[in-house]
Amino acid sequence: MRASTIAILFYGFAGAATTPYQPLVGIRVIGLSDFSYSIVAFCAVIANLAASIAIGLVSDRFGRYRAPMLFVTALGVLGFGVVWLFPSLWVFALATIGPIALFNVVSTLLFANIRNHSNGMTPLELGDSITIVRMAISIAWILVPGLVGLILSGTGSPLTAYAFATLLSLCCFISIVIMMPHDHKISVENRSAKSSSLADLQRLASPGVIARLIGTSLITSVLHLNAIALPLIVTGRGGGTIEDVGMVMGFVAALEAVLMLVWARIGRKASQISIFFAASVLYAIYLVWLAFLSTRWEIYAASAIGGIGAAAIVSQPISYLLGIIHDRPGLSASLIAINMFIAGGIGTALFAIGTSFSGYGTVTIMGAIAGLAGVAVLARVEHKRN
């Protein structure tokens, strides 16, 4: 548990150091066009999704999670390092689609590793463990982007962010080597008793799994939509500045880090569907308020409500998804990547549709409806199962 938390903290540091500045590096430093950068970013998402599923299947098959983690973190050191040392169009594109995309699989592997070592844990203890590990990523996003931004303002080149990411991914690798316990060896009999990879893939495509993925993706799509719409609304009708955008994001991240544990405690007495409903209602109130706000103070007031809901939306779906295919930790962890992919697509599609006939306010209202629809889907699925 301690090893997973430290490893994912370094992983979060590396991501938080580069993600906000990746478009700047790709477009302004490397010289990619907006369209070319979009293609690279999309291919990286597809590569991460495919790798998450493939590595999850292999990890479950052989019962090994530590070795794949070492492999992908080593790729992270390589990917960030070559962009920093040899910045060019092809190096950036290939590193982003290849090593860096695979490095991002380490988060799902860490959650799979926790699930794999959960024997003896009650469901509540497992949920608390997952919440604490997820909270480490939020802490990284509170601390790192601002610090890196201050340093970059002195160096003048966003490429320096990749130097930090190289060092941080190396720290992630070292923490796994030193602290992560070795996997238990699986006997040949147990390995042969496991279902084939094709059978596991068929489980991913089962109606129950697909319905749950649709529900959680609709719920979490509100976060992706908000990431697009919030800066535009804050600096538009909200009357705020770029500094307000950064302050709001830091404020919400701080709320998330604190309130994730609160939601985990609530989960001891309430069902996950009840938590999804309460969090989605709070976030819907926030999104609707965004649609109509007109002053700076409303930005922060609305974000306080949104942050409470977001704390559950970023953490609770992880434990829910990990429990869908409970006997295959790697495969169930790959559902996290699939969920992020679908949720991102839904959020982007809602933004495109909403802005095609109306303004940003309509987009956020559509997002609120989508989140509540996701709760309805999950409630129906779980009701039928019970």
Describe it for me?
The protein is an all-alpha fold and 386 residues long. It has two domains: 2-193, Growth Hormone, Chain: A; 197-385, MFS general substrate transporter like domains (Growth Hormone, Chain: A). The protein is 84% helix and 0% strand. The protein has helices spanning 2-18, 22-29, 34-62, 66-85, 89-103, 106-116, 123-155, 160-179, 188-193, 197-204, 207-234, 242-266, 272-292, 296-322, 329-357, 360-385. α7 (123-155) packs antiparallel against α12, α7 packs across α14 and α13 runs antiparallel to α16 (360-385). The radius of gyration is 20 Å and the shape is globular. It is found in: Cell membrane. The chain crosses the membrane at residues 35-57, 69-86, 92-112, 132-153, 159-181, 209-233, 245-263, 275-293, 299-322, 334-353, 359-379.
Concise account of the structure shown:
By secondary structure, the protein is mainly alpha-helical. The chain has 16 helices and no strands. It is globular, with a radius of gyration of 20 Å.
Characteristic terms for this protein:
single chain, 386 residues, mainly alpha, Growth Hormone, Chain: A, 16 helices, 84% helix, globular, transmembrane transporter activity, MFS_trans_sf
Which stretches are low in confidence, meaning pLDDT under 50 for 5 or more residues running?
Answer: 187-193
- What separation lies between the terminal Cα atoms? 32 Å
What is the N-to-C order of secondary-structure elements (H for helix, E for strand)? Answer: HHHHHHHHHHHHHHHH
The main sheet comes to: none
Shape: globular
Q: On the 0-100 scale, what is the average pLDDT?
A: 86
Derived structural class: mainly alpha
Relative strand content:
under 5%
Supply the number of structural domains.
2
CATH superfamily of the largest domain: MFS general substrate transporter like domains
Number of helical stretches of at least 4 residues: 16
Cα-atom radius of gyration: 20 Å
Percent of residues in helices: over 70%
Write down how many β-strands occur, each being a DSSP E stretch of 2 or more residues.
0
CATH class placement of the largest domain: Mainly Alpha
Task: Could you tell me the CATH topology label of the largest domain.
Answer: Growth Hormone, Chain: A
What's the architecture of the largest domain, going by CATH? Up-down Bundle
Organism: Brucella rhizosphaerae
Transmembrane segments: 35-57, 69-86, 92-112, 132-153, 159-181, 209-233, 245-263, 275-293, 299-322, 334-353, 359-379
Pfam family, one: MFS_1
Protein name: MFS/sugar transport family protein
